[in-house]
Amino acid sequence: MSVNLNKRVAAQLLPVAGVVLGIAQANIKRENRKDLLVMQLSEGAQVAGVFTQNRFCAAPVIVAREHLAAAQGIRALVVNTGNANAGTGEQGLQDARTTCAALAGLLGCDAAQILPFSTGVIMEALPVAKIVAGLPAAVSNMVADNWADAAQAIMTTDLVAKAISQQVVVDGVTVTITGIAKGSGMIHPNMATMLGYIATDAAIAPAPLQAMVSSVANRSFNCITVDGDTSTNDSLMLIATGKTALPEVNVTGSPAYNALLEAVAEVAIYLAQAIVRDGEGATKFITLQVEGGKDEAECKRIGYAIAHSPLVKTAFFASDPNLGRILAAIGYAGVDDLEVAALQLYLDEVLVAENGGRAASYREEDGQRVMAQTDITIRVVLNRGAVNATLWTCDFSYDYVKINASYRS
Amino acid sequence: MSVNLNKRVAAQLLPVAGVVLGIAQANIKRENRKDLLVMQLSEGAQVAGVFTQNRFCAAPVIVAREHLAAAQGIRALVVNTGNANAGTGEQGLQDARTTCAALAGLLGCDAAQILPFSTGVIMEALPVAKIVAGLPAAVSNMVADNWADAAQAIMTTDLVAKAISQQVVVDGVTVTITGIAKGSGMIHPNMATMLGYIATDAAIAPAPLQAMVSSVANRSFNCITVDGDTSTNDSLMLIATGKTALPEVNVTGSPAYNALLEAVAEVAIYLAQAIVRDGEGATKFITLQVEGGKDEAECKRIGYAIAHSPLVKTAFFASDPNLGRILAAIGYAGVDDLEVAALQLYLDEVLVAENGGRAASYREEDGQRVMAQTDITIRVVLNRGAVNATLWTCDFSYDYVKINASYRS
Questions:
Q1: pLDDT-derived band of residue B195, with 50, 70 and 90 as boundaries?
Q2: How confident is the model at residue B189 (pLDDT cuts 50, 70, 90)?
Q3: What does the alpha-carbon distance between residue B209 and residue B261 come to, in Å, rounded to a whole number?
Q4: What's the CATH number for B19-277?
Q5: Interchain pair B124, A358: CB under 8 A
Q6: Which chain B residue shows the shortest CA-CA distance from A403?
Q7: Hey, what's the torsion of the CAs at B209, B212, B214, B219, to 10 degrees?
Q8: Which of B190, B328, B329 is facing A324, going by the closest CB pair?
């Protein structure tokens, strides 16, 4: 079964002044595919990012963190697919540094001004010679209007390229934001490692830029899950080139900051949802709204318990309203003082459970009707506080097993 | 694919003096199958148990806890399969009480002397009339030599009945222990709810009996996982009838207590492993040994991160030594100060990873050879403390999705 839950095609992508992108076929894992991306930034561009929390984080994550901390001004990003350079020890760090040095030589900057990223299989040595050999071709074709190819060049098991542009007018100035992402799960250590790159031509100082990317990540990529496996390589980068007439945003909370934050968040949420919609084997897109909790942590705990339950996910794959499985997941989410008789469970607008059991008004055919849809909202109303949280996930199908059982062959 | 990982047949089961078992076909979910079990205990028998921690625990769990707390002396247990009586609110509690009252009437005891258990689909009303109607037939065929039928009568999606007997000589007296369990996962809220019943003819006072069942559960049923879904109905009961010449064990830690503890633990570990070997869709039995941790909690956290990872489980299904996925799971297990360069990863005796990456001595064909086995040990040596933990799990196959996507149809 093949289902395309992504309704929007990555088209009409707008260039961002101050960013040029070049791609190459470096034969990293397979022949004849785009697998190497170089994004060059104009001088003065600011970059901030958030990275995976995995203790086995990949070598490029370590090097990218170092180079951001060095604060010499980032001039380029280099991304390869086909190999994650994770679980590769000292050699992996050397390979990431070699990649940066090679690109710096081509661009005439310092290696510490390059951020490296990798995605693909882990615990296998990075074919650094192939990457170094492919860099000149990527550099030679760098142009501003190349975001669609860039979105393709970072794919692994993704079925669709994920990219979006939007414009927002701030203080009378039109600001452009374009983002790309890859991932067929938030969190697949091996193949669907999540990478996201969002660029704007606004000028944003380092501190508010870092605040913005952290805030945006918490509202987008940190609210999705396919399988609960936290990647070794997850990275989200926000680039601000400062090529518009809008004055530099240098504090959080200002009207201009807030306007840009919302616009960037919209791009990030679109990209995050696109990853779930392209989740490995996914046939259903599920929105989880947990409402009326005491704090965000307990709302997310309950949401993730539902989103990670293989039993819930297989029931959704089967379009079977076997909804007691959702109650069970709520029950084991680890909210120790949860009063199960106080909560309500809805499937879209259908009240499924209350008073600790099936709602008197619930009819199986109503559940069946909603389960047959490809987009479904599960709503849990806890009635114990004022905090809400929303997560996005997908179902769990034969194809998930197939894709992940056959990956390296 | 159908694989029977259980190598031992439930045969040669020994009666336990003081326990008689009767079964019936009550047509609870399907016609013509054993689905109702009554175990009657002799007067003076002691019963202790541990139950699920799920906040949506089933009605029979609530009633069984109440009746154990009432301490009027338990005279019988009644177990139905086909319906879990969970997520059933007030009506579910009434149905569990009705079942107890009906059996008490037949046996001439008080309803508080009956422990009820249910397993099967949740959030559907218990067909209590069918159960009440089936009880007389179960009571009429109660005999001591009926453990094999009892193991069958509590199955849901289990492919094999799980039962074992053993004898141990304590202070010159031969003590018999017989146990049965059901479950095709530790933890399936809907269908493979874990139930376990172990009886011995030794005499054990209430306090040490409770200590023994808790200790045994922590070493057996609390060390397994199929899919990470904690059931609404999990229950493990330990029965001591006091029908041997061995004096009553009335303190923990005595030589007789320790001898019985080890013998009961051996039975429980066998049953727990049998559940994993019969895990839904399982084709591989995996032992997870996490060694050299600072405390048991971090060892179990790392073990469960590996055991719950869909990516690890699908790689084992495919016999693909894609072992970087194990490193990634270790990395996201939540042990914040973990030094990944300090640990070693072994597959059986093969050293796979050290110094943060692939071991220099590791050859793909060695990993492939171990992965082709049906019984595999993953060993993680943390080198940061003196504590070890062992867990058992299985792989994740097409059949898991199939079984759970089609359960109610």
A1: confident
A2: very low
A3: 9
A4: 3.60.70.12
A5: yes
A6: B314
A7: -160
A8: B190
